[in-house]
Q: What sequence folds into this?
């Protein structure tokens, strides 16, 4: 699942407590009870499907 930290939170990774999930970019994490608890506590948010850097296709203008 793809998650990012809620605003104002830094969430340690399950397997490396010295690395953090932050608000700036979404990361892929396994669907484990650790991350599910963090989601339930509103410390993590599910990231959008497009990703942070994906662009929407441009709409053509009718002239």
A:
């Amino acid at each position: 699942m793809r998650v990012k930290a809620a605003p104002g939170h830094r969430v340690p990774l399950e397997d490396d407590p010295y690395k953090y999930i932050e608000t700036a970019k979404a990361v892929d994490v396994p669907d484990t009870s650790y991350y599910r608890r963090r989601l339930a506590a509103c410390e993590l948010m599910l990231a959008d499907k497009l990703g942070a850097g994906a662009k929407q296709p441009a709409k053509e203008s009718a002239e």
